[in-house]
Amino acid sequence: MLGEIILIKLDVIKKMTTEEKYKYMLILLEGQLSSEKDIYANISNASAIIYAIFDKLNWSGFYFVKSEELVLGPFQGLPACNRIAIGKGVCGTAVATKKIQRIDNVHDFPGHIACDSASNSEIVIPIIKDDVVYGVLDIDSYDFNTFTELEEKYLIKFVDKLNKYIDWSQL
């Protein structure tokens, strides 16, 4: 029943503008986070919400810092790299610099790690709470130049909402 309700709700996004979709994405995430306490359930559904809302994606998910490297977390898309060294690739750079990485053409990024050769652009939002980097939200697109300031703005809000509800130290 709940799955049917979500599908009906997601069907309405076809008529929305891009920004309306992103605002709706935040509403869906708030509903998920406010009604569920399990970290893994929440981050699994968070990656699914992004994958359902965004156009032109081939991957959305999380990597978490464990033992001085990034380890794959819940995601939507094809299988991905299990581990990424901090400072390497787009995700590792986001952690090392504590800065968002919005890459129009991943093939031009020095040291890009091609987990999926279909990826052409990428945005990575570091998950930082109380000045500790816990991981990243990583989103890939098969198109070039997919991610703009608009996507960055709403993905920052998305991670802020995750930080409001999730105690990352419990991972």
From TrEMBL:
Gene Ontology cellular-component terms listed: cytosol
Matches recorded under SUPFAM superfamilies: GAF domain-like (SSF55781)
Coiled-coil segments: none
Gene Ontology terms, MF aspect: L-methionine-(R)-S-oxide reductase activity
Pfam families: GAF
InterPro entries registered for this protein in UniProt: GAF (IPR003018), GAF-like_dom_sf (IPR029016), Phosphatase_reg/MetRdx (IPR051330)
Protein family: Belongs to the free Met sulfoxide reductase family.
Protein name: Diguanylate cyclase
